[in-house]
Design a protein that fits this description.
With about 220 residues, this protein is of the alpha/beta class. The chain has 7 helices and 8 strands, in the order ααβββαβαβαβαββα. Helix content is about 40%, strand content about 20%.
């Protein structure tokens, strides 16, 4: 390779690295995961979470989208509840692995004070419905597929576009209180974050139940 071509290749490599860093908004580790996700279609994180004190949370996230049954769901519908938002798609291996943990948390907490919402980033309705049937997922998912991606863009700054899976816990005002990048670390991680968010508002926290951390392993 000539010196000129070598110089061009280096420049292109640096430009690509800078672009990935800018998109991720999460530092060097997230930039690396983002680069990997372009090849695999998902971020294979280890369930690393970030928690944001009330005083440091951003403005409430406002969004609206169409769920699998064709109805519309918006941020107004979940306002006042602690809400779990999970970004996923059916062919994502970590999404499949963590599905039992999400459904277990839904069964434990869903009610007047806690809501669950999936954000499907890639599939057609039939694929999403098949996934829900396979894993017994009872909560709805907004079909935020390529083209508009309006819900993903509404969470820009909190979740890199195409960062799948990612799980957020929103407080009762619709602000991001917790973020888990990549697959949930175990069955106890999400319930712990939900309880913390409920407790800060004075809402009665459900009694903790013993849930094995191997639930996600059963899906592999």
């Amino acid at each position: 390779m000539t010196p000129r071509r070598i110089g061009t290749a280096v420049a292109l490599g640096l430009a690509a690295a800078l672009t990935l860093s800018a998109c991720s908004g999460g530092g060097q580790d997230l930039s690396k995961q983002w680069e990997e996700s372009n090849e695999k279609g998902y971020i294979s994180g280890d369930g690393t979470s970030a928690s944001f004190p009330v005083s440091e949370r951003t403005d409430p996230v406002q969004f609206s989208g169409e769920v699998e049954d064709g109805s519309t769901l918006s941020s107004d519908d979940i306002l006042g509840k602690v809400t779990v938002v999970n970004f996923w798609y059916a062919g994502c291996a970590p999404c499949r692995a963590e599905a039992p943990d999400l459904e277990a948390a839904y069964e434990e907490f869903a009610g007047d004070n806690v809501a669950f919402l999936g954000i499907n980033t890639r599939d057609q309705v039939a694929q999403a419905q098949q996934f829900a049937q396979e894993f017994g997922i009872e909560y709805p998912s907004i079909m935020d597929v390529a083209g508009g991606r309006s819900v993903q863009r509404a969470f820009a700054g909190q979740v890199p576009l195409n960062a799948v899976p990612t799980t957020l816990v929103l407080d009762t005002e619709g602000r991001v209180a917790h973020r888990v990048l990549g697959q949930l670390a175990g069955a106890s991680q999400l319930p712990t974050l939900i309880r913390e968010t409920l407790a800060e508002t004075g809402i009665e926290v459900p009694r903790e139940t013993s849930t094995p951390d191997s639930a996600s392993e059963s899906a592999e």
